[in-house]
Amino acid sequence: MKVLLGQLTPELGNKKKNVQRIEETVQGGQADLALFGETFLTGYMCRSDFKRLAEPIHGESVRSVSKIAESTGTHIIFGMPELDEKTKVIYNSSVLVSPDGGVQVYRKLHLATFGPFEEGLYFGKGNELSLFETDIGRIGPLICFDSFFPELAKVYALQGADILTVISASPSTSGPMFEKVIPARAVENTVFVLYCNLVGTELNVVFHGGSLVLGPRGDEKAKGKYYEEDVIECEIDLKEIPPSREMRPTIRETRFDVMRKIESFAPPTPKGPTPSEQTEEG
Fold this sequence. Notes:
Number of helices: 8
Radius of gyration: 19 Å
Number of strands: 14
Number of domains: 1
Structural class: alpha/beta
């Protein structure tokens, strides 16, 4: 299987231009699966403009990407602000468009709302994992901060995922952490991991790139440049998964009895004032 990571700089607020970038990147590449970063459709630092830019899952932009997928034979995953037409809630979503016109969506579970991140101000939290079923394999989608929660990747692997896809808007300050966490998700679950990060500067945030293709033993298959646009193309073979699981049987040896105990665990209520109740003196 040929995979492609479009490590690009989206133009803030210009959906048509960013869809055009997707088309230019996948045309002629003959990739089976192509990834683009978190909120690539609009750019990440849109803030209150997300309300204006968000679209339903079968809106104009997804239809445009669907035509690209059909004409190129490529499964395309990209990030977008998705409007739920019933509830009017906007979600930070990862969308898979297949060449046969199928559309599948995952809504980010763990919103980053700390430091320079403001996702909780603009997005609703997703409530469930969404294993993407395709004719090239089963794909477990995650978005950026989600990858710091190993239970999500574990559940996908137990559901039969062959590949974890992590679309990201990770700034340079977070780069060293992602370069530890992303390989760990591959090793823990003996799956391929495709990590596609944004690059460039939006407002005061610098995205550093460094996208990765990792094998089921955590081995690096390909890596994107830092601080530059890059298109990473790589061949992967899902036949690597069974022998990797024989050598490191983390899926077979999963303790479901212990997982059930973890499920019922509730952390104690912290003592003392909450952060919002603390004074400037602490």
